[in-house]
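My current task is to audit a protein record that another person submitted. My question to you is simply how this chain folds and whether the tokens agree. This is what I was given:
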Amino acid sequence: MNRFFFILVTAAFALATLGAAPSEPPAVEPAVVLQRYADALAELERPASMTFEFSVEQVGLNNLEETHRVYRAGLRERDETLSADGVALKTPAIRILPNSAYKYDVLTLAPKPADYKFVYGGRRKASGRTVYAFETAATNAGPFTVTNVLIDALHFLPVVITFTTKANNASGSGRVVFSQSGRYWLAREATVSAKVGAKDARERIVWSRYRFPTALPASTFVAPRPAPSEPE
């Protein structure tokens, strides 16, 4: 083959491959989806240490708009409030939580086949992903119950869960969106609408800037000393 022609063909193939959409995952039976889903959850790692930022907006019972930076290692958490109501804080407000389970952990929130009945709802597209949809009914309903899950057709992990929640005089419903970050599967957005007594309330949280340091220094989880008071 003429060398110049060979170069042109190779370059054209490379460009075509670069622009090509990823191939569609092959369809599998619902029972296989659930088995792969259970296996994927069992194999999923939790980060030993991580940092991230999130924004939270609440309307109704309490009106607030804040951004936070969080450092976590195991059950230890450092939460720095960076801004409140759109105004950056000159000195972040810091909370140290020495024994705080992470409530948006996918392994905690995702419905498990051992605890739920799954009813297949079809294969579809969601946010550009191919997913398998299932309705879920808890074997033993609690204050937090997942009602639906969309399972990613490539990784077999939850992309979206929808839920209901009830505690004391509050009840609501919402959803949590997950996606991959490195080798982890983490929350990206959560929304909830609730009724607290006679009042309506809404909340939206968006996570960003995930990082996974090998370890965090012990000083991360030491409460800062209060600033010395000014002499009178």
